[in-house]
Design a protein that fits this description.
alpha/beta; Rossmann fold; three-stranded mixed beta sheet; binds thymidine-5'-diphospho-beta-D-xylose
Length: 360
């Protein structure tokens, strides 16, 4: 077994939703030293890392992954045993209204990181050269959209539909090529929709919880019958650690929660939890509002996560019911975090992109 977890891991995007969950877990449940490399865009938030900020095995580096000089310095200075690459622009709606930053961060940034990793890894001597890993964290959206039946497997052909998913698909291909051409020891994971605490409230689940609490409309795109496969973020972080530790070099692992729900089912489940946990006169579901559909909206995502179960023994610990309850409870209890992340930039984007959006 690879001994990486006792060593130094460079985590990109460690101030984001999945990244900060992973960093907190690595500090709490492993002996790894974590170097968190994050540009701190609107969605990156050091308040998600307060509990590890002063830990002796944690360092923060305010660096953009597109900055080759800075990235090379980090490899030189910290001599990492692994990279876990989570830094990315991740919101599909933003990629539709402004794709440029997605191309820059997700494609050019991944290229910049791969090149720096390749140069650094080439210079390592055995045995460190043999244990080094570049773990690329990606999404099931690269596979496109499913019909009513079937699942995404690791062999499903790539068919990305949005600027976001196309940028992630391009990054996945670069990672694959750096392995195939240069021998860089990579592993790639593609996950389904994550949810849980510390999720930036532009994504469906936190947006609906916070809008409901603030008595604002709960926007449902189209008819609400699009399907997503929900994965609790702590389960995802556990899977990432396992893949880093035991995944085979050059392999891809799909990570999903086996939790397919229509968007309407998700929103209704949140409303029912809020009715129980924070009752008010009107049921929260009365705030549900149908709005025009997302352009090119993918119909259904569903991951077949049997490879990671079979080969690495991973399975999710949370059901959708237990995970959603924890999530709603967390948002109700952590208003200080919520207030802090809803910063000026996010509000400006909402105003520019949603002010003309007619509620049907
Ligand atoms: O207000 C909303 N109303 C609505 O109906 C929002 C924000 C979303 N939706 C729908 C669109 C999707 O069908 O809910 C579903 C989930 O939407 P998002 O939370 O934006 O996620 P999605 O587009 O599915 O992409 C997510 O999963 C894959 C992440 O944002 C990606 O980063 C990840 O790769």
């Amino acid at each position: 077994m690879n001994k990486i977890l006792g060593q130094t891991i460079l985590v990109t995007g460690g101030a984001g939703f999945i990244g900060s969950t992973l960093v907190r877990q690595l500090i709490a449940d492993s002996t790894a030293t974590v170097i968190n490399v994050d540009k701190l865009t609107y969605a990156g938030n050091l308040q998600s890392l307060i509990e590890v900020a002063n830990h002796p095995r944690y360092r923060f580096e305010h660096v953009d992954i597109c900055d080759a000089v800075a990235i090379n310095r980090l490899f030189h200075e910290y001599q990492p045993d692994a990279v876990m690459h989570l830094a990315a622009e991740s919101h599909v709606d933003r990629s539709i209204s402004g794709p440029a930053t997605f191309i820059e961060t997700n494609i050019v940034g991944t290229y910049t990181l791969l090149e720096a990793a390749r140069v650094y890894w080439s210079g390592l001597a055995a045995p460190r050269k043999n244990v080094f890993r570049f773990h690329h964290i990606s999404t099931d959206e690269v596979y496109g959209s499913l019909g009513d039946t079937g699942f995404f497997t690791e062999d499903t052909a790539y068919q990305p539909n949005s600027p976001y998913s196309a940028s992630k698909a391009a990054a996945d291909h670069l990672v694959r090529a750096w392995h195939h051409t240069y021998g860089l020891p990579v592993v790639t994971t593609n996950c389904s929709n994550n949810y849980g605490p510390y999720h930036f409230p532009e994504k469906l689940i936190p947006l609906v919880i916070l809008n409901a609490v603030n008595k604002k409309p709960l926007p449902i795109y189209g008819k609400g019958d699009n399907i997503r496969d929900w994965l609790y973020v702590e389960d995802h972080a556990r899977a990432l650690r396992l893949v880093l530790e035991r995944g085979q070099v050059g392999e891809v692992y799909n990570i999903g929660g086996w939790n397919e729900k229509t968007n309407l089912q998700v929103v209704q489940a949140i409303c029912a939890l809020l009715d129980e946990l924070r009752p008010q006169d009107e049921p929260y579901a009365s705030l549900i509002t149908y709005v025009p559909d997302r352009p090119g909206h993918d119909r259904r995502y569903a991951i077949d996560a049997s490879k990671i179960a079979r080969e690495l023994g991973w399975k999710p610990l949370e059901t959708f019911d237990t995970g959603l309850r924890k999530t709603v409870q967390w948002y109700l209890a952590n208003t200080a975090w919520v207030d802090a992340v809803i910063s000026g930039e996010y509000q400006n984007w909402i105003e520019q992109n949603y002010s003309d959006r007619k509620i049907s």
